[in-house]
Write a structure and sequence with these properties.
Elements (H helix, E strand, L loop, with lengths): L15 E3 L9 E4 L1 H6 L3 E7 L4 E11 L4 E5 L1 E10 L6 E8 L5 E3 L5 E5 L4 E10 L12 E5 L3 H16 L6 H10 L5 H5 L6 H11 L2
Parallel strand pairs: 1-8, 2-5
Antiparallel strand pairs: 3-4, 3-11, 4-10, 5-9, 6-7, 6-11, 7-10, 8-9
Helix pairs in contact: 3-5
Length: 210
């Protein structure tokens, strides 16, 4: 498995500051992505790109409503993406516009992306391999949203909280280590297929106990 690294620090992201818009024709509704998909307000289309961690899932979000929907960048509790093929299932922790951009609410400090009414937007997910033994998801493999498996709920929530509290850090490698190690994979086994150092392992242990 090839290690991937992607920096989500504000200094290297293209982001935009939102301003209050007066006289909007449609209300803006803030949603968690999982709830928006479950209620069918939003349709997800996603595929792999050959990567293992980080920007490993590309896709689009379609707003099926007449209202503008604001989707939180931080996916609280994580979003589980089931692979259509034999490759890795993925846990998405964050979602960005395709170019890595997002908006910031000046009042609350919240980070989000906007979905215009009845329109689609291209996105990229900061996602991690949920399985250890499978291969990286390819562009030929698509994903669909399903409920988080019970065995992964605890570690997924910890990853979500950690990444929210350390938003500007590149935690790609430690998060992937934490996800595998929490499922019983040893450091030796992981090292056979994934490159990391002592610092990554220490942060992974912190995430597991977060």
């Amino acid at each position: 498995m090839i290690k991937t690294k992607f920096y989500f620090a504000a200094a290297v992201l293209m982001f935009f500051i939102s301003f209050a818009l007066f006289g909007q024709l449609t209300p803006v509704i803030s949603r968690e992505l999982s709830n928006a998909i479950s209620s069918r307000a939003v349709t997800l289309t996603a595929r792999g790109n050959g990567g293992s961690s980080g920007t490993a899932v590309l896709g689009s979000l379609k707003n099926n409503t007449e209202n503008e929907i604001r989707i939180n960048v931080i996916l609280n509790g994580g979003v589980y993406l089931r692979n259509s093929g034999s490759g890795q299932n993925m846990i998405a922790a964050q979602v960005f516009l395709f170019d890595g951009g997002y908006y910031i609410d000046r009042a609350s400090g919240g980070r989000y992306i906007n979905l215009a009414p009845n329109a689609s937007v291209q996105v990229v997910f900061n996602a991690f391999c949920a399985n250890f033994e499978r291969e990286n998801p390819t562009a030929a493999e698509s994903f669909r949203y399903v409920s988080m498996p019970s065995r992964l709920k605890s570690i997924s929530s910890k990853i979500s909280r950690y990444m929210a509290d350390n938003f500007d850090d590149d935690s790609t490698i430690p998060v992937q280590l934490a996800l595998w190690h929490s499922q019983g994979q040893s450091r030796t086994a992981i090292a056979r297929k994934f490159n990391f150092d002592d610092s990554d392992w220490e942060i992974a242990a912190r995430i597991i106990n977060y």
